Amino acid sequence: MPVLGCIADDFTGGTDLANNLVKGGFRTVQTIGIPKPATKLEEIDAVVVALKTRTCPVEQALRESKEALHWLESIGCRQFYFKYCSTFDSTPRGNIGPVIELLLREIGASFTIASPAFPDNGRTVYRGHLFVHDQLLNESGMQHHPLTPMTDPNIVRVLAAQTRLTVGLIRLDLVRQGEKAVSHAFDTREGQPGTVAITDATSNEDLVVLAGAARHLRLVTGGSGLAIGLGKNFGLQKGRAAKAIAPAGRRAILAGSCSRMTLKQIEAAKKVYPHFKVVPEELAAQFDATLERVLSWAKEHRSNPDPLLVYTSGSPDEVASNQKSLGANRAGDLCESFLAEVAENFVNEEIFQLIVAGGETSGAVVSKLGLDLLRIGPEIAAGVPWTLASGSNREIALALKSGNFGSEEFFVDAWRFLGTPK
Ligand code: ADP
After folding, report:
1. Ligand 1 close to Cβ of residue 147 (< 6 A)
2. Which CATH architecture has domain 4-234?
3. How far apart are CA 317 and CA 228, in angstroms?
4. Is 201 helix (H, G, I), strand (E, B) or coil?
5. Closest Cα to atom 16, ligand 1: which residue?
């Protein structure tokens, strides 16, 4: 029976968390949305319910998060984990703050932590300030994000603007005093109504301390980093992850992320794979005709064993110009629904091994394909596992990559982590 119930605010974030849970000893599945009653969840320690609530209206995020929480409670989960991005992707309205507030209220708790740090991916928090590798969040490229530009690195301030809860800080100095000291600080804060504390952490050891101290919290929130230390609270052993077996079929990469690292990964992949770039203006003018062009290009490459790369991703200047002419939401929606259509057509053409780059983009693709359960397989890079994705009578090998995750060679290297085709 699952003991840990997780709610992720996007699909790539869900696989990122599931990956770290597996590493931490949890047998984990990820569901896309709230599962159907018939979904089998035997021999599972953790369930990640992946929602697409990062940028939707606040009311929708609250409604869906509440429903997910009640479902996780109904299957017996004892502790809950709200997962958002390690770069705290959100807008001034939320949705991180309002969802934390709701979850605390629903489970009847008064205190939780907000722990975005993910040192394996260069995300660290010091004195409440978020760093991406050597740069502050607002200089990391995230200030140009098409949907959630992050222009303030002070996460205490960012979260405080989104919630009525009191937002505090657990400083690194305290974390370095060890689990007992942090646990005591949590207890003290639990006595005060409605408090959330941002936690500093610059290493996995810090996260292990925080996770240990969080043993008695009904709710924890953060990026995926905290998950590496939670297993011991439930007596779980590391290294029990099952390996996914790859379904046979051709390969493709679909990219809608405009993040710095994805742009570099696209450049590296373009050197070795057939590639096709689509721009939002084309989609606004001729959506169906553009789709036809991509599909006939793909047919021409049918006998080529290399993965096909289709992308809408553009530089910050291109994104700014597209957003100016079409509006940010329309530009984003067009790209997302286009790549989702491409995915549907590709899978129908027996492309059964797929990498999708971009959180929102992944959400659109997974929904279109009707996939509802992801079994977590081998890790490709920190935060990105291969998964065996099933639903709508299909099963594919799927990797959902958050914009900035992975090294430059990710799109080229990822395939070697797949198991032997069935
Ligand atoms: P990431 O994981 O990097 O945040 P997402 O897929 O979550 O990537 O977000 C990228 C957003 O940018 C999506 O809504 C996508 O549709 C949109 N987008 C993709 N290409 C373009 C483009 N050329 N111009 C404007 N927006 C784009």
Report:
1. yes
2. 3-Layer(aba) Sandwich (3.40)
3. 38
4. strand
5. 332
